């Protein structure tokens, strides 16, 4: 008898939890958009017979912003910040590759398509490109496509912060020795 009672309680509790999770999916807590709250626009409209699916038609000449807004934890100041990169100075761009985020494509873009005074020199068939500063044999880019896996395979932030200065100093010493000869 008690087992049947437990089953009868479990079903409504599971249904309530399912509805709560579903509601949070449709109407997130920190969002101003909820498809059920909209009076006359949105995915659903209320009619006397219930909810009816509606696709609002926008005219082509209307310049309305997209209803889908990205929600990131960046402030306006973060997004508008300007970074001065001096390719002729001592600045080094370190590329931190995060797996499964398009990092390989972006890394290739850095060495092949970036518009700088002296872009990277990529030879067909080679995996690494040479990314030297104008008039110097020093590298301005630290990535797997310019220096290889110098800090190990998929090095994280901690590994890169300790490894990059050591590797760059070794490379600078080698290039200085080559110039002296």
The shape, in one word, is elongated
Mean pLDDT: 76
Low-pLDDT ranges: 40-62
Q: Give the termini distance in whole angstroms.
A: 93 Å
- Strand segment count: 4
Question: Strand order of the main beta sheet, please?
Answer: 1-2
Taking all Cα atoms into account, the compactness measure Rg is 28 Å
The structural class is mainly alpha
Largest sheet: 2 strands, antiparallel
Strand content: 5-15%
How many helix segments?
4
Helix content range of the residues, please?
25-40%
Helix and strand pattern: HEEHEHEH
Function: 6-O-sulfation enzyme which catalyzes the transfer of sulfate from 3'-phosphoadenosine 5'-phosphosulfate (PAPS) to position 6 of the N-sulfoglucosamine residue (GlcNS) of heparan sulfate.
Membrane topology: Single-pass type II membrane protein
Family: Belongs to the sulfotransferase 6 family.
EC number: 2.8.2.-
């Amino acid at each position: 008898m008690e087992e049947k009672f437990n089953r009868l309680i479990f079903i409504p509790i599971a249904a309530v939890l399912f509805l709560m999770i579903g509601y949070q999916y449709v109407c997130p807590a920190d969002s101003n958009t909820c498809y059920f709250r909209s009076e006359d626009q949105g995915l659903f409209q209320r009619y006397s017979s219930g909810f009816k699916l509606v696709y609002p038609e926008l005219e082509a000449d209307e310049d309305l912003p997209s209803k889908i807004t990205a929600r990131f934890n960046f402030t306006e100041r973060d997004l508008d910040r300007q970074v001065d990169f001096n390719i002729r100075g001592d600045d080094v761009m370190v590329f931190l590759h995060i797996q499964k985020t398009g990092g390989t494509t972006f890394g290739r873009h850095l060495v092949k398509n970036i518009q700088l005074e002296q872009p990277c020199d990529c030879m067909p068939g080679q995996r690494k490109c040479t990314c030297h500063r104008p008039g110097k044999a020093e590298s301005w880019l630290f990535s797997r496509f310019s220096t290889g896996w110098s800090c190990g395979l998929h090095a994280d932030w901690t590994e890169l912060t300790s490894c990059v200065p050591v590797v760059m100093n070794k490379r600078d010493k080698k290039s200085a020795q080559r110039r002296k000869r």
